[in-house]
Amino acid sequence: MNVTKNLRLILISIVLILFTTTISSAASRRPIKTPRNSYDIIIAGAGTGGISAAIQAARMGASVLVVEPSTWIGGQATAAGVSTMDDMSRQKSGLYLELINMIKGYYDRRGKSMGTCYWNSKASIAFEPHIGQEAFVNLINDARKKGTLEFLMNSEIIRVQKEGNRVTGVTVGTPENERSYLCEVLIDATEYGDILPLTNTPYRAGNSVSQFINSEAMIQDITWVAIMHKYPGGVPDYLKPSEPLPGYELAKRNYESYVTVDGFNFRNTYPVLTPVNFMTHNSYRGLPDSSNPYNYDADKDNRMYTTKTSVNWGNDYPGTYLWNGKKGLPVGYLENRALRRQIERDALIKTLHFIYYVQNELGEDWSVADDEYKNRILPEAARGLPYEWQEIVKRMPVIPYVRESRRIIGKHTLTSEELLHNSLSYRDGQTSHEFSDAIAIGGYILDLHGAATDADIEWDFGERANSAITNRPRGPFQVPMDILIPNETEGLIAAEKNLSMTRLSAGALRLQPITMMTGQAAGALAAISAKYDTLPRNVPALLVQWELLNSGVNLSLCKYSDVPEGHSINKAVQISNLYGLVIPDDYPHSVSYNIRDFDDPVLANAIIKGNDKGLFGISDMMTTTEIAKILERAKKLVRPRNSRVAAELKRDRYITRTEFVKAMCEAFPELKNIKPQKDIRQPFKKDRNRNWPYVEILGRLGLLNVYAIDSEFHYGRPVTKGEATDIIVRACVVLAAR
Length: 738
What we know:
- The protein has 738 residues and is α+β, with helices and mostly antiparallel strands.
- It has 22 helices and 21 strands.
């Protein structure tokens, strides 16, 4: 078993070494003598947002270069060691779902549970960072089959080139040299929003705004996580430091308030009664353990068997230490590189203190896991530490967990009140408050680690400290596309914790699942922008949404019992929901629930009664009047300035396919001039019916695929709501792409 494990680790190490140089996606097909100097898209940062953007864009055929300062990909989910997924949305889709399914397959084959954290085996998802890293690598290699995807690791963008207000390229600093690259689109997916000042993009930091940044304004704590492992035979000497680091006594008092030998068990209630015992501590961020032949999960009877955990509780920095008497960190952490280095060093040492505390105060045979990080390059924060502590750090995450970043001032700024309002869609008797330009669905509370007082919040958006409670989402919420796009700088897209949002909203959008989803959307937006040679702000949201839906992303908060996931018209129905094109027979009538409670009986009861789903009426026959109204709405979507429908549909009766295709062509005469894509074929053979020209126009564009199950068109059959929705939505997509 150890031989197999070591072989796998060697293979992963080889892959990671390859990532430290520029890698060509076409290397297996043709030799490349020198790296290219121009890309459709350059992405700063290979974190959860950046790597998702890169994979999505490459899958769409774009050429992509990712520049990552560390030696790991995956950001907070892997490089920072936060591999217990903070997912309260109860909805998984897109790349996030692909990643989780890939990792689940790994653990399923070994008979292991991923439900090892948060004291709840059914509602939690956790994985070992190196397994998550391996899954990301597999997704990258798959994406390379369709586009160019190259990496520069241990490198950083140091300058940005612009023509006027548009980004045109970057200069990258590597350990060896500097090199410049051109690009159509630049994506800032850094952990700190470091590209924003390089592009002179207006941004927010804390509750201040550039050009008047207050370096003393406060932002959230950071955490330097450690992955700890139980050593049944005793901790090896090289992982058991003999002397504590300076400052240990302060750290000891801090940790005594969190975990002690005789601390409390978790009592299935929040807030948690502290201090807890070590078993309860480990189960909070418990991880599966590939080196352990036995299985365990987070249930009460199995917590004692946990052998691997993520240390991310009580070691927030500064946490209880405070910063000049305040909770949180100063904005200077983002703005001043020297201060950043010092703070990250102090955060690292605080976590190192915990390892000493566990071994010497709790008397536990635990230390850093020897099968996770084996870093050849010590992080800058560890330089100068005693050698025995460097051996520990070499097996720790390569970057800290950064909770708050600079945030662009975008086309729109998302507020916590909007999140609440949006999350109430189809709840408590309300109907749709969906964002028409939604590009992701998330779900979390408005969670700030420090810097959560009235003095720290953005009053100009009507928010106060208490808004974290009053505006807490009551269910999943959407993310609108406009918050990815800066209000001024062209050719730049945000894709991490740097979206245009208030600090409180950022507290709900900073988690791994939602940053993966917004990153995937940023990649789709960038790829479409490059493909059509248009600015990101000019890309219709509909095109991005359709691409995401085709990539398995869910976008609508409304679900119907007669249009389940995977249904042939589900994508069109989601678009219809977002833009209000087709009125369903009945909306869902669910009630609000506590998003942070995975066992909330209110939600369980709504699901049992079926109130969480509505009825679309997929088989309802449509009347001429109904079709005319839908076409008017569709016209507004693709051509807002001229929404009048040219078709004459005066008699209110059930509409036939003949009348419908004719009405479509009269409503959208532009369709006849659009050339079909090469992979689209007319589903019907030409016939002598006088209305064949209308069928030919729509069919050659792939708009009639809903009827392709039959060999002939059946002109006289009535049109159903499901058929009409699919055809009209597909027509809107084709027209938006013109």
